[in-house]
Structures are given as structure tokens and as C-alpha cells.
Amino acid sequence: MAGIIPRIQEIVARFQATRAGRMNARYGAARGAQLAGGIAYAALFSVFSALTIAFTVGLRIIGENDELRQAVLDAVDDALPGIIKTSEDPDAPGILSPDSLTMTTGLSITSVIAAVTLLLSALAVMGALSGSIRAMFGLVAPAGNLVLARLRDLLGFVVLGLSVFVTAALGIASGAAGSWVTSLLGLESSVGAFLVRALGLLCAFGVDLLVFVALIRVVGGARPPRRDLWIGAGIGALGAGVIRLLGTSLVGGAGANPLLGAAVAVVTLLLWVNLVARLTLYVAAWTANPPSPTADSADPAALHVNQTPNFVTLSAPRTLDWDFDPRTGVVLPAEAGREERETLARERQERAAQLEAALAASQEEGSWLERRLATRRARRAARDVRRTVGSDSPDDV
């Protein structure tokens, strides 16, 4: 028994050093679960506004194309299970009918105000998602134009809306292509059905891949290396496809109860969005590829934990002299590491001086042996300088 615990600790330590372990550590340190809950809560109050805008604009573009309209409804039902009635049957599962989500009023001051209100409400969830993704990358929102930030959220909202319509259109195209290939090659109906299904899943994967890229680059404002970005987006697209299949089957069984159908759909919406948000934040944390977190060894005195107040406040002007993040107000343990940084800086200066002296000695006139020894000392000093500088380099983390 005594040998099992160290073995388990060793396995845990090895996992924590892997990319998956570091991803999980960043997700926990950034409070990913709470952020996902906030996104789901914001989505609950934004979904009606978002669907109203999307249906009003999208269905006007579609026009009288009933096949594409039904495909869009099915795509929305896949993205938000149990929310939209996908048929005209009054007993069909779903909370909202497509007709109730279409603004039919003409252009007027009232309609413009209503549209702007719906748009701002829909962008609330995008703002929550944007801040959460930045938290996974350790990014602080830069001080900038509020209008520009809203435009980024709007662009992300447009991308999400377009993804639904593009998925629907590609689903129809893949179905037609699969049927054409089946008839052309004389394949059996089961093989044709499998081919159509595979093409549909491949199209959905491609759309989800681009959506995750847009969420990280546009909505989150992160600029990861290209390889990390596309691999992370691919993982997210694969996970989104699995969640979509599981979510649809879950709501399909729950919606059969006429008494609990509406309530279960609302609860499922919260759980569904929470699950998708968690996936998105995990993908962001994986793409960030953060270093392994180190134990917090800062002296409590350096953090002013035992003082009153123990946080930065204008009510106590002396706290403004502490080291703290001016945007978040978090007290920084700068004092705890200042001595170590100063010692490291002195070592760098001393080794650089030794290198200069050794280089100067190697250039002086003397015997072959003296010049040889001076050259060796110069190489050793250069190696020490590189080691000292590299110990604090991000590339060596």
C-alpha cells in the first residue's frame, strides 16, 4: 500500500506535465466552469433575441424555398435542441414556432428600436464568450473603443448565424450529391444512405472547424500559432459533432412528455449551452498550450494578506503604493520575487564582464598556449552567459 501512493502521485505528476494536464490546469485556474455557467445563463436570455434576428434576416433571404427552410429549422434544432418546432404540427416538440420569431412590422422608429434592443440582447452572450476565451489564453482586454469591441462581438454573432444556414445548405447539397453518386454507380440504398450521412457529417465538421477558428481569432482576439489554432479547432469541431448527436437524442426522449416538455427543453438548453461552452473553453485552453503552473510560494507578507485592508482601495491611499494589476486590482507578489530577480541580474552582469575580459585576453599577444587558454575561457564564459539568460527565457519553459 505504501508503494501505491507514490506511484499514483508519479502518474498524476506526469499527466500534469502533459499538454492535456496543462490545459486542465489553465481551465481550472481561470475558473472555466464558472465562466461556462455564465455563458449559459447569458444565452438563456439572449437566445430569443438571437433567433428572432437570425430568422427575420435569414428567412427573408431564403424566400419561398421550403426545402431550405426546413433544413435551416433542422440545423437550428441540432444546434439548440428542443427550442424550435421543426414542423407545423401543434403537438410537435419545441418551445417556439418559427412564425413567432419573425418580425413582420414595417420600417419605423418602433421597429428600429426593437431591432437594436434585440441585437444588444443577442450580443450579451457574445460578450460573455469573448471574455471567457481571453481568460483561457491569459489575455487582459485592452483598453479600446467600446464600439470596436461590439463590432467584434457582432462579427462573431454573424459567423455563428451564417454557420447554421451554411450547414443547412451544405446538408441539402450533400444529400443531392450522395443520391446522384448512388444512382450513377448503382449502389444499394443502404450504401447511399451511409454516403449521404457521411457527407453531411463531413460538411458539418468543416463548418464547425471554421466557427472555432473564428471564435478564437475574432471573438477572443487571441493570436495562437497557426498549427495550434487549426488542431485545436479540429478537436473542437469533433467534440461539437459528438455533443450535437447526444444532445439531439436527449431532447428527443424528454420532449415526448407533454407535461415536462417545455421545462425540460429550457433546462436542457442551459445544460446544452453549458456543455458547448465548456468544450469551447477547453479547446481555447488547449490551443493556448500554457506552461505548467508553479506552486504559489509568495510570502503572505508580500501579498499583504494580514493587513487591513488587504486589497488595493482608494479608501486607504497607502495601498496604492503596492504592486498590483491596474485593470483587475489583483495584488502582485512582486516584492517576493524582487530579490531573486536582482540576484539573477547581477549574475548576468558578472558573467558578461567575464566574457568581455576573456575575449580581450584572447586577442592579446602571447604564446600559443596562452591564447588557447584564453579562448577556452571565453567559450566557457559565453556558455555561462547563455545558460544564465536562457534560464529565464520563455522558449525554455
What report would you give on this structure?
It is a multi-pass membrane protein. The chain crosses the membrane at residues 39-62, 107-133, 154-174, 194-216, 228-247, 259-277. It is found in: Cell membrane. With 397 residues, the protein is mostly helical. It has 2 domains: 13-288, no CATH class; 333-396. Helix content is 71%, strand content 0%. It has 11 helices and no strands. It has helices at residues 4-17, 19-29, 32-62, 66-79, 109-137, 146-185, 189-219, 226-254, 261-288, 334-363, 368-390. Helix 2 packs across helix 9. The longest helix is centred in the middle third of the chain and has 40 residues, at 146-185. The chain is extended, with a radius of gyration of 29 Å. The two termini are 35 Å apart. Residues 389-397 have low confidence and may be disordered.
Class computed from helices, strands and strand pairing:
mainly alpha
Report the average pLDDT across residues: 75
| Number of separate domains | 2
Q: What is the total tally of β strands?
A: 0
The run of helices and strands is: HHHHHHHHHHH
What is the general shape?
extended
Radius of gyration: 29 Å
Instruction: Compute the separation of the termini in Å.
Output: 35 Å
- Helical content band: over 70%
Q: How many strands, what sense, and barrel or not for the largest sheet?
A: none
Strand content: under 5%
Q: Provide the low-confidence segments as ranges.
A: 389-397
Number of helices: 11
